[in-house]
Amino acid sequence: MRQTTQTLSSEEARRVALYAQGLLGPRPNGGVSAMLRRLGGVQLDTIAVLARSHELVAYARHGAIRRARIEREYWGKGSTTFEYWSHAACLLPLEDWPAYGFKRRASRARGKRWHVLVDHEQSCRDVVTRLREDGPLTAKDLGGAKRGGTWWDWSEIKIAAEWLIDTGDLVCRERRGFQRVYDLAQRAIPSELMDQEWSDEECALRLVNAAGRALGVATEADLAVYHGVPRKLVRQVMDGTELTAVVVDGWKDPAFVAPSALEVLTTRVHGRSVLISPFDSLMWYRDRAERLFGIRHRLEAYTPKAKRKYGYFAMPVLGGAKVVGLVDPGRRGDCLVAKQVTLQTRDAPRHVARALGEAASWVGCQRILVERVDPPERRPELEAHLAAQSGVVDVR
Q: What per-residue confidence (pLDDT) applies to 309?
């Protein structure tokens, strides 16, 4: 790590962060797989509103890319990915398999998940034997993912398979209908990666450098959260990283930038107007999002409806180098429904209208229905921009 006396303004920090994330400047080259390597991971989640979150992440960076192509590059034949726990459940670049060795060791040392199994060892043996004999299988193929109750009431087999994912005995490199396909790691991971055993410090150094490149500018806490590396371990390896210490106006903690991250400050780049998934890597750490954009955003899907401020799946709207508002979207047939639109800046209506119009086209919607607008007195501005660029628009 190098020391400098350079200071970044809050606006410069936003530009650096968005450029590093592929959300400012030219659309990234190399397709979805290159995007994944640039970000270091794409979070997976079962919630699907306009599309699943991993699709929205690719859309935000590549525009109206075909959804079948997104799935193919993530999980198709010849893909170079695997699923594991980063800051959360993520799709990760295959070359980073050795870097998560410290987490696999921690799982093995813990001895079990939080679930209670009738016969943990036997269930694990049964899963491994079945996969060895029959090849890659889903939980349904193995005997069912659920006991029959609520969605989290996993079967013994499902729990055992997930535990073996944690320890690295199994791996998921494919999905069928968004169901994980389990396989033996020794069969699915290339031997040159399987044979690498890195120390905890080597793992942390790789992941902290990767986080720094993906974030552009970050505090120690940001670097720790991004790939789920303990703060203590981040501190141990910071001096060996490629990052440079800087000061960011308004940030109480020291910050660090990656090599070449500052080039955006001397380059003329264009922003875009786009909806951002709440699970996008730009938003993983809510404290960081608030620091960068002045927005206190929380996923409200599990908040009682009466207590929601922005909506069930409120998506931040990026307008240039700012978050200009939020949209809680839905879909009814061929209609994209903006259940709640929250406008936060002077130019928000223009950016929100463009983002809604482009998203509607991407998911095949012919109309846009706007329900609630906050503040309500700005509804006419939004209506005018929508009508000008989206064709048929209903505003309620």
A: 93
Pick from 38, 152, 16, 132: nearest CA to 93: 38
Low-confidence ranges of the chain (pLDDT < 50): 149-151
146 and 9 in one domain? yes
For residue 3, list its beta bridge partners.
245
Give CA–CA dist 129/106, Å, rounded.
24
Close Cβ partners of 110 (under 8 Å, ≥ 6 residues apart): none
Task: State the residue range of the domain holding 323.
Answer: 295-395
pLDDT in tens, 193-251: 999 999 999 999 999 999 999 999 999 999 999 999 999 999 999 999 999 999 999 99
On whether residue 6 sits in a domain, the answer given is yes
Nearest Cα to Cα of residue 292 among 312, 315, 321, 264: 321
| Residues 360-387 pLDDT 10s | 999 999 999 999 999 999 999 999 999 9
Please identify which residue in the block is written with the tokens 């994209």: 336
Neighbours of 81 (CB within 10 A): 24
| 3-class secondary structure, 259 | coil
Give the burial class of 227: count Cβ atoms within 10 A of its Cβ; 0-12 exposed, 13-18 middle, 19 or more buried.
buried
Q: Are residues 18 and 154 both part of a single domain? A: yes
Nearest Cα neighbor of 368 from 378, 377, 376, 358 is 358
Residue 149: per-residue pLDDT: 47
Domains: count for the chain: 2
The answer to whether residue 275 sits within a structural domain is no
Same domain, 170 and 318: no
Model pTM? 0.93
